[in-house]
UniProtKB/TrEMBL annotation:
Residues 224-234 have a biased composition (Basic residues). Pfam families: Pvc16_N. Residues 184-234 are annotated as: Disordered. This is Pvc16 N-terminal domain-containing protein. Residues 4-179 form the Pvc16 N-terminal domain. InterPro entries: Pvc16_N.
């Protein structure tokens, strides 16, 4: 799921014209050594915090059907996670970095969700909304200064981006549907001669079975009435 969110963000930023203008979009950690090797204008989207949103955790299991409408698996509900990114721009001059960062900001704040056309893999299969919060005041993640300190670099202008995405549940295959009938025959009782036995079969839903499939059920003889004391003999 994480790499699918990365791909969605890369496609979203690519549509803003960054890639067309020769700007690289990478997901590396912006360490001091990494920054020293940069030679082209770059937008770095660094993932540094992952947390589960426990308030959205569900229970039970959903059913998965094939193209013929048959139950093939049961899947646990998806679990939601918050992915926090540190977005920075890198160029030869601060003015160029600010221009790139402004272009990124305009692109990200224009949408609250990643468009469905940009989703791939399990995110596309689930069909759920992937939320996007850019530079929000409620980002519950380590401060940017702490991140830069851990990376060993100098503090730099950056954007905090929070993505809320679902992780697909675990699927368990169910037993295949019954495709062959199960026939049961009862042996004829003594004295019935060649009377046909009663035949039963399990069939699929909606299959009425062949005509004349089951013979008529014979009603058993009524039990004899028990005589009580005081009854007169006939």
């Amino acid at each position: 799921m994480i790499h699918e969110v990365d791909e969605g963000l890369r496609r979203l930023l690519g549509e803003s014209g960054l890639e067309a203008s020769g700007v690289e979009i990478v997901f590396d950690a912006p360490t001091r050594d990494w920054a020293a090797r940069r030679s082209a204008p770059t937008v770095c989207v660094f993932l540094y915090d992952i947390r589960e949103d426990a308030t959205r955790r569900g229970s039970g299991a959903g059913e998965v059907y094939d193209e013929n409408g048959r139950l093939v698996a049961r899947r646990t509900p998806p679990r939601w996670f918050e992915l926090t990114y540190l977005v920075t721009a890198w160029a030869s001059r601060p003015q160029d970095e600010h221009r790139l960062l402004s272009q990124v900001l305009a692109c990200l704040v224009a949408t609250d969700t990643l468009p469905a056309r940009l989703l791939t893999g399990t995110l596309a299969e689930l069909g759920l909304t992937v939320g996007l919060d850019t530079a929000g005041a409620g980002l519950d993640a380590p401060a940017a200064s702490d991140v830069w300190s851990a990376l060993g670099g100098e503090l730099k202008a950056s954007l905090g981006v929070l993505v809320r995405a679902p992780l697909a549940g675990v699927s368990e295959a169910v037993a295949p549907p019954v495709t062959e009938g199960l026939a049961v025959r009862s042996a004829p009782r003594h004295g019935d001669g060649d009377a046909a036995g009663r035949r039963l079969r399990y069939t699929e839903v909606g299959d009425p079975g062949p005509e004349g499939f089951a013979g008529p059920r014979e009603r058993p003889p009524a039990p004899a009435r028990r005589r009580r004391r005081g009854d007169r003999r006939p």
